[in-house]
Amino acid sequence: MSSYTALITGSSRGFGKSLAFAVSSKYPNSTIYLLSRPSSHHTETFNNLKKAHTDGTVHKVDIDFNDAADTDNPNNNYINVFKDCIEGIPVPTSSSNKIVLYNNHGTLGHLTASPPLSSVPIDLNLNITSCISLSLLFSSRFPLSSIVNVSSLAALKPFPTWSLYCASKSARDMFHHCLSLSHPTLKTLSYAPGAMDTDMQSHIRLNESDVEMKEAFVKMKEEGKLVDPDVSARKCVELVEVGKEGHVDYWD
Amino acid sequence: MSSYTALITGSSRGFGKSLAFAVSSKYPNSTIYLLSRPSSHHTETFNNLKKAHTDGTVHKVDIDFNDAADTDNPNNNYINVFKDCIEGIPVPTSSSNKIVLYNNHGTLGHLTASPPLSSVPIDLNLNITSCISLSLLFSSRFPLSSIVNVSSLAALKPFPTWSLYCASKSARDMFHHCLSLSHPTLKTLSYAPGAMDTDMQSHIRLNESDVEMKEAFVKMKEEGKLVDPDVSARKCVELVEVGKEGHVDYWD
C-alpha cells in the first residue's frame, strides 16, 4: 500500500496553511506534520486540519526557526526539534511511499533600501541557514524523497527594497539546485507561488517604502489579480506528484 | 586633486592580496586598507605592500569576519571594527575622490555533497551575513562610492559539492544587484575572477570529493590554464575605474 507523508514548515498561516489543506485534500490518508512557532494560529490550523483530515494523521510540531542560538537550552533549538521529528518517521523503502518536505517558512523582513544592520543576521538565519539545515537533515535521513523550496520571483529578479529577501531566495534556489545534482534519488522543486492574497501581501501594502511597488501591489489587490493561495498550493502539490524539478513559477 | 581609497577584505593572501598590489600599481598615491584576520600572512602582506607603496598609505586592520557573535567582547566584533575603520575616512564629496570597497573575503568550505551541519551557520555567516553587513555600512557612510563583490562562476552555475559556496555567491550577487538599484550614486560590480592559481585552488585539488571536478582542476593546473590572480586583479581594478556594473567574469 502506498503512503504519503508531508512536513510543512511555516504552516500556521498563509501559503503554508494552504499547502497543508492541499495535501490533505489530495491525499486523504496522508500523515501531515505542521511545523510552526507556538501561536494561536498554529493551534487553530492544527485543530481545523484535524477536523478535515479524518482519514489521515496530523501532527503539531512547535518549532522556532529563530532559535538556533538558544545555547541556554540546546535541546529546544530547531535543529534538535527537527531531528527528533524526522527520526520518528520510518524511512520509505520504495517510491510508492512518498515523503515530502515543504520548506516554506521565511520572512520578508524590512521593506526598505537600507535594512537595519541588526536585521541582517536575523533575516538571513531564518531565511537561509535554517532552510538549508532542514534540507540537509531531511535529505540525509530520506535519500528517496522530495523537497519543495518555497521560492519567489524575488529569487530571480532584484527588487530594490527587498535586498535581504531576494538574496535569501536566490541562495535557497541555488542550494537546492546543487543538492539535487549531488543526490540522484532526491527531487527538489523551487516553487514560486505567485503574488498571493495573504497576510504577507497586506503587510507589503502597508509597509512597502518603494512607492511604485506599493501602488502596483495595491492595484493587484483592487483588481483581484492576487493569486488565491489555495489554488497555488494545489498546483505546487501537483507539481511534486509529477516529479517536477528546478525553479517553477505559478504562472509558468 | 583626485584621491583613491581602497578597502580590501581577505587581503592577506590569494586574490585579495593581488587586488591590493593592483590598486597600488594603478594608483601610487592611494590609501589602502588591508582588512584580514590577524595572521603572519596579514603582517607579511602589509609589510611588503608598504615597501612597494611608497607614495601612498597602507593601513593594516585586524578583523575577523567569524566573530559577530563575540558577545563577551562586543567591541571586538567585526561590525564595530569596520565601523571604526570607515568612520576614520573622510566622506568624498566629488566623484574625483574615489572610494572602493573590495568585498573579497569568504570561504569555499567543505567540498562534499553533504556538508556537516555545524558548518552551515559558520560558512553562511562568513560568506553572506558579514559581506552584506559590510556593504550596508559602507554604502550608508559613502553613498558616492563603488563596491566590488568578489563573485564566482558558482554564483550562476550549481556545482554539486559546493552547495554552500554556490548559495553564498548567488546571495551576494543578488544582494548587490538590489543595493545598486536602490542607491543611484553607488556602483556595484560582482566580479568573477576566474579559476585562479591560488591556495584556494590547491585546496580544491587536494580536497574536492567530486572526482570529475577534481580531475578538471588538476588538468587546468597541469596545462597552465589557471588564471594568474595578479592579472585578474588588474582587470578587476580597471573595471571599477571605467564604472562597470553587474556580474562580470574574467573571461567576458
Automatic annotation (TrEMBL), chains A, B:
Keyword Iron among record annotations: no
Listed PANTHER family: SEPIAPTERIN REDUCTASE (PTHR44085)
Cited Pfam families: adh_short
InterPro entries: Biopterin_syn/organic_redct, NAD(P)-bd_dom_sf, SDR_fam
Biological processes, Gene Ontology terms: tetrahydrobiopterin biosynthetic process
Molecular function via GO: sepiapterin reductase (NADP+) activity
Gene Ontology CC terms, in alphabetical order: cytoplasm
Name of the protein in its database record: Sepiapterin reductase
UniProt entry tagged with the keyword NADP: yes
Compartmental location: Cytoplasm
Keyword annotations from UniProtKB, A to Z: Cytoplasm, NADP, Oxidoreductase
SUPFAM superfamilies on file: NAD(P)-binding Rossmann-fold domains
